User: Fold this.
Amino acid sequence: MRQKIVAGNWKMNNTLDEGLKLTSEIVNMVNDEVNTDVRVILAPPFVHLTQVRGLVKDSEKISLSAQNCNENDEGAFTGEISAEMLASVGVQYVILGHSERREYFDETNEQLAKKIDIALANNLKPIFCCGESLEVRENGLFKEFVSNQISDSLFHLGEEDLKKVVIAYEPIWAIGTGKTASTEQAQEMHAVIRELLAERYGADVAENISILYGGSCKPSNAPELFACKDVDGGLIGGASLKSRDFLDIIKSF
Ligand code: PEP
Assistant:
């Protein structure tokens, strides 16, 4: 059985007070309302992590993620955060390769391969994001594009390390735009990704990797997306900032 996951990426939103209020609401609602085996992951900004951890640490269902880490061990990288630092404050996951990081911070597939390695070396589970722009979708090369993102950043890993990675397919044209991929589009790409993993690591490994969908996922479309055979949950941006919407998405399996 693949792990079902709903992860909330808060991006650069919320003051500390707002973030802690949101966390408390989510913790209470998850305790009261969620009786499935879904793993809930919260990815607040770095400066919230320690205090958010204080609120979620007793929850069996909720884990903590960072939104990024640096690819180096330590040193003179002003303003950066290392994987070791994240692990030292109790973080369990790290989102890597989000399209906003690729676009605004020029992160490359090669750099992301290094981030994946340093995350795994510090016992953080990477949530590796991939996905094509509208231009690439429209020119028809999206399967090749996403396959290259995955093979360039992940295929140097051995089987045991690959098994720790969560993949998030996030078509850029659907992120924050209100335009969701159809269930057919989502299922098609998730199946392509799983097949690619099967070719490299074998069907058993591929069958057990969680592949999340991201891009304008909300309570109204989550049930049909999560019902797709190869969609194992969602990476949620905007709707993760409202506790009720986030909970309704979690309950959509
Ligand atoms: C995201 O940024 O990962 C995302 C999926 O955002 P949204 O849900 O707002 O489209």
The mean pLDDT is 97. The radius of gyration is 17 Å. Residues 183-201 form the longest helix (19 residues). The beta strands are 5-9, 39-43, 62-66, 93-96, 125-130, 166-169, 211-213, 233-236.
